[in-house]
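User: I'm putting together notes for a lab meeting next week and I want to include a structural view of one of the chains we've been expressing. I don't have a solved structure, so I'd like a prediction I can at least talk through. The sequence is below, exactly as it appears in our construct file.
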Amino acid sequence: HTMWANTKALEEAGLLHGRQVGQGNEVVIGADGLAAGELREGEAFGPVLGHYGANRTRLGLEGAEPDPYPSAEELAADRDLMHRGLEWCAKHGITSIQNMDGNLYQLELLAGLEKEGRLLCRTKLPFHFKNFMKLDMLEKASRMATSYNSEWLSSGMVKVFYDGVLDSWTAVM
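Assistant: Thanks for the context. Below is the predicted structure for the 173-residue chain, given as structure tokens.
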């Protein structure tokens, strides 16, 4: 819900001088009139993630899958992107993670890393059930749980999202 970016990332993503984003999203501006680095919600941090190649890997946030399906080169690039994140985790002593915005594509990427011997952390990934989905979409969650159930990579859970969080003021109280 909240992301922090350094000056270089803000500049390269076109956010250093702020940007108009939708309600509940915010590029926080400092006293100097420049983005302070705090990006609240997806419309604010999306440009940074997109600039650094995370457009397909973050579709789980929206409960979506890539369409069209990525080419072999794009798949390799996305696996490498995920591997860099896992390397950071391993370097800092993190041995297991739970990504709460999962989709089938992310599981496929992580399974590819596991097959290559590059899945550096035990990983759990849910099916992300969004408020616009019909209940029959839970069949996909069941398929994900059945297909991905190894010691290093598993699904078997569902994230349900109907509200926001307090830290970026998107929750209704």
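A couple of points you could mention at the meeting. Helices lie at 7-12, 42-51, 72-91, 104-115, 138-147. The chain has a mean pLDDT of 91.

User: Perfect, that's what I needed.
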